[in-house]
Amino acid sequence: MTPWGREGRRLDRSLRHPQENRLLWICVAVTTLTVIGTFDRAITEHSTQPLLVLLVPALVFFTRGQLYARQRVNGVRITEHQFPEIHQIVLDAARAFGLPHPPDAYLVAGHGQINAFASGHGSRRYVAITSDLFEIGVRNGDLAALRFVIGHEVGHIAAGHASFWRQFGISIANLIPGLGSSLSRAQEYTADNHAYRFCPEGVHGLCVLAAGKYLYPRVDFAAIADRARTDQGFFVMLVNLLATHPINTWRFAALRDRSKPGRVF
Predict the structure, then answer these.
(1) Could you point out which of 1, 43, 88, 218 has its C-alpha 20 to 30 Å from the C-alpha of 175?
(2) Residue 252 CB neighbour total at 10 angstroms
(3) pTM over 0.85
(4) Nearest to residue 216, comparing CAs of 148, 152, 142, 150?
(5) Residues 154-191: pLDDT tens digits?
(6) Could you tell me which residues come within 8 angstroms of residue 229 by beta carbon, excluding any fewer than 6 positions away?
(7) Which phi-psi region, left, alpha or beta, contains residue 178 (left: φ > 0; alpha: ψ -120 to 50)?
(8) pLDDT bucket at 37, cuts 50 / 70 / 90
(9) Phi, psi of 19 (to 5 degrees)
(10) What would you report as the CA-atom Rg of the chain, rounded to the nearest whole angstrom?
(11) What does residue 237 show for φ and ψ, rounded to 5 degrees?
């Protein structure tokens, strides 16, 4: 057992959102029942057309492979020679969460988009950060905020969210409005929990999601979190239900009050 191993698994269990596994099993059950139903229909109707659903694993595989290749050929790989201070943050996060191998990390052109994501292909795991988000740490000097972002993405990997079998298991459920997105929101809370454990002082960096990379330092994080109690109603819940990420007010409130998990619904 490496020094990065056993502790990371303990952290993963303690930081996982309590609704994540329940939603995961529902999504996997939907996919499994769809595949079983497809086989039954093909046998009953003596048709091969329903078997097209069996192409889903291949589609997931090739989509992940293409996405990984796109980062490798178009992005800047973060190493000990290119952005070494950010490379060290990735290593620190991987060690903190008990990963046996640190993920690759890429800087990719943002073209105005504030985004970062974690994924994988085969045995490889990686994180990608758009340049517009990357700048808050390297250009603006807010390394704590960037540490939080990296902790969030590496947290996705530590929690198993980048697994091929997991992605395949929820692939058909993702086609049902509100189902796959609900699991995704629970996973985002799990990743936020990892990020907060890794770098709590960088939580203010999430304000970039509300105000952008230039104005976020002037945003009151607590003021947004407070609105989770006052900005309610049917359409607020509908917006949240259909979103892959928790709405900002609920997400900020969960990060400010660590005594209870974030709202998924």
Answers:
(1) 43
(2) 27
(3) yes
(4) 142
(5) 999 999 999 999 999 999 999 999 999 999 999 999 99
(6) 253
(7) left
(8) confident
(9) -95, -5
(10) 19
(11) -65, -35
